[in-house]
Amino acid sequence: MRYFIVDDDKASRLMLKNILEGQELGMVIGEADSGVKAIPQILSLTPDLVLIDLLMPDLDGIETIQQLKSQGFNGQFIMLSQVVSKEMVGEAYQVGVEFFIHKPINQIEVQSVLRRTAEQLRLKNSLTTIRESLALIGTLDQPKVKRTIKEIVLAKLHDMGIIGESGSRDIVTIVEVLAEQNAAQLPPLKELYEAALHKMGVQAKEIPKESKAMEQRIRRSILTAMDHLASLGAVDYTISEFEYYAPRFFDFQEITQRMKQIQEESFGMKAVKVNSKKFLQVLYIETMEEQKKNL
């Protein structure tokens, strides 16, 4: 993964570079202390990811991103910011920022965000390749290629902002297991997790312990999906991903509560609840319906 760092603070740039290269997360191919200096370099070097500070002289982070996009740059951005207000989150989402790293910089947070972003980018590129291949087949007037369960589920997880989460693989495997069983309804989650682990090749003696770990991974991923959709809704409830996924996959009262917390900048004041069984049930039903359309 190739990175470019834009930050007017030299110490921050050095710290980020040391984390990236010291943890073998990727290679820093360039850096700049202002948006004005960064734009021509980024357009020339075309990095995969740009780490960019929000507050800078001349051009701030959002203005720099807008100029880069207007000139054809299609890479991803991670925003560096000491203060994350609802207005800033709204502007950032509108220009395509999906991830934030808070200042002062914390090594654990940087590693976590960059690993998730890199995985999301890798899977996104895979999905793009698949879609392009399907489009090409269609132009050649050849029979449609049936989309796999994995492809359909990954596309939906991408829309909900969790394709890079550790629980995404678990969720895909669970839907594959349900499809193989042609399940009319979900069995108890404990049985479902055990069946998924068996499919993954986990040894029988390890399944009870791994089942609990899988449960936690899936729950964290679903909570992240709720946060992502609530953040979109807090900015603009007519955003298509929010309109489609929020009422289908979640209790709308919980989504509304999270949106209110985001709008009032009160993250973490009150825990929200998620229904893992409902999430998986809806995902399974929608996946099977979508696959039937491709037959």
TrEMBL record:
Residues 2-118 form the Response regulatory domain. The keyword Protein transport does not apply. SMART domains: REC. The keyword Phosphoprotein applies. The modification 4-aspartylphosphate is found at residue 53. One of its GO terms (biological process) is phosphorelay signal transduction system. Keywords: Phosphoprotein. PROSITE patterns: RESPONSE_REGULATORY. This is Sensory transduction protein GlnL. It comes from Sporosarcina newyorkensis 2681.
